[in-house]
Amino acid sequence: MITDPIAQFLGPWSTQMTYGSLIFRILLSAFLSAVIGWERSSKRHSAGFRTFMIVTISSTLVMIIDLYLSTFFDSHFFILSAFAIISAARIATRTLFFTSRNQIMGLTTAVSLWGSCITGLAAGAGLYTITLVFFFIMIFCLSKLPSLEFFLKNRSNHFEIHLELKNSLNLQNFVTTIRKLGLTIDAIEMNPAYAGSGLSVYSIAISISSAELKKYKTHKEIIEALRTLDYIYHIEEI
Known about the structure:
By secondary structure, the protein is α+β, with helices and mostly antiparallel strands. The protein has helices spanning about 5-10, 20-40, 50-70, 80-95, 105-125, 130-145, 145-155, 170-180, 210-215, 220-225, and strands spanning about 95-100, 105, 160-165, 185-190, 200-210, 230-235.
């Protein structure tokens, strides 16, 4: 049998089905979810402080109820916990939305909300060490890895741009320029959200085919160079 190090440090009371132990688990999940929710809300994401707390402490209580039924009524099925995971996943999908530039937004917040539900279940089960390890890894991913992700993304051989041209006739000129620069267009999709705006707007997937360009240029530098073309109204990476 595996003994939880933190539970061992706290004492036998932390593993028992007592009011003190159960309240401690709820308070622990409330604190951890508040930190995660604060991190998300500080970056102005749709699911924030209160949402994360409610989802997490609810899943903690659900696990406690399942443990209670298992202990005192010989129930071998953690149905409520399974339902909580499914419900959290459904709630998380509601934080997703598409922008006018065909981008999916809110994906990290959605999976963070689902992960917080798992955190709550682990805390409710009294797996304190696993709960804290998972929490710190989750916070590290949310707060520290975006800069690394941006660094790697900015140097990958593939990227996608949002392009606004002053006239649809300029698209051929843009394609010609792209090829001269050593880039390859993988896909072009016209964006209907800008119909009637007077602009020709496209989402374009690009690959860097030139070995020289791969070595010295980042996506930002390539886009800055393209921005100097007089027929481009606006261009940015998506």
